[in-house]
Design a protein that fits this description.
alpha/beta; ATP-binding; TIM Barrel; hydrolase; 18% strand; nucleotide-binding; 7-stranded parallel beta barrel; two-stranded antiparallel sheet; 41% helix; 10 strands
Length: 261
């Protein structure tokens, strides 16, 4: 029996700007990556998203990004590893404060956007982020692109590490995600997306844009909560995985089941 976590980026609204249908999406995902105010989110949005996730039994993680609201954290910035460390510690702390008011624990940390992609390729930045997570709490699970420098850094320092794959993104032959600047970066067809997901979970491979099979590990699947059809997509993915006899549950619960078996 195959099993996988289904995570979604949430809490990315701020001020007057509202993104996604959070409350409904939370019915179909098992882990929520909550923005911490740098690329999206604000204090009120963070609190409300934490509250909704708890109400739906969804495990919570910090989603730290670059300080770039205008670019939604998707534009690269020249930062040092120390700056990356500081940004991650700061943002985990912001979310941790809200979790404490609900007597809830944090499950994981997943960098956002450009910070995520930079850490996937830059060993020094990856090590700094992994160190930041470890220093806050060694019990946290680090989410990173499958087979990337970030997952390697997490495993090296002794963190529980979840290799992440994407439901709506295409891949390159080196295992990296196709840049959003390319017109073929996103998968908009539900059938194509789900077929890719099922293959990644059950076969451990993805077909790249260069038509090669790239090996990977799929511990958790990301869907984006700000997409035009995010809610329908989340529901469809959850239902299809279940129909394919794939257990969908939070990564921390899946790890417990693995230890028991």
């Amino acid at each position: 029996m195959f099993q996988v976590d289904l995570n979604c980026d949430l809490g990315e609204s701020f001020g007057r700007y509202q993104l996604g249908e959070q409350e409904e999406i939370l019915k179909y995902v098992t882990s929520a990556n909550i923005a911490c105010g740098f690329h999206g989110g604000d204090p009120s949005v963070m609190r409300e998203t934490v509250k909704m996730a708890i109400a739906n039994g969804v495990k919570i993680g910090a989603h730290p990004g670059l300080p770039d609201l205008n670019g939604f954290g998707r534009r690269e910035m020249a930062i040092t590893p120390q700056e990356g460390y500081d940004m991650v510690v700061y943002q985990i702390g912001a979310l941790q404060g809200f979790l404490m008011t609900f007597n809830e624990t944090m499950q994981h940390v997943k960098p956002h956007g450009a910070l995520y992609n930079m850490a996937a390729k830059d060993p020094k930045l990856a090590e700094a982020i992994a160190q930041a997570v470890y220093d806050v709490s060694p019990s946290l699970i680090l989410f990173g692109l499958s087979g990337s420098e970030l997952t390697k850094a997490g495993e090296k320092i002794g963190l529980r590490t979840a290799h992440e794959v994407f439901a709506d993104r295409t891949y390159q032959a080196d295992g990296s995600l196709t840049s959003r600047s390319q017109k073929n970066a996103m998968i908009t067809d539900q059938e194509q997306s789900v077929a890719q997901i099922v293959k990644m979970v059950t076969k451990g491979v993805v077909v790249s844009e260069q038509k090669t099979e790239v090996p990977l590990r799929a511990d958790t699947i990301c869907i984006h909560g700000d997409g035009a059809h995010a809610l329908a997509f989340a529901k469809y993915i959850n239902e299809t995985l279940t129909k394919n006899n794939i257990i969908v549950d939070a990564i921390c619960k899946l790890e417990v089941e693995n230890e028991k078996s």
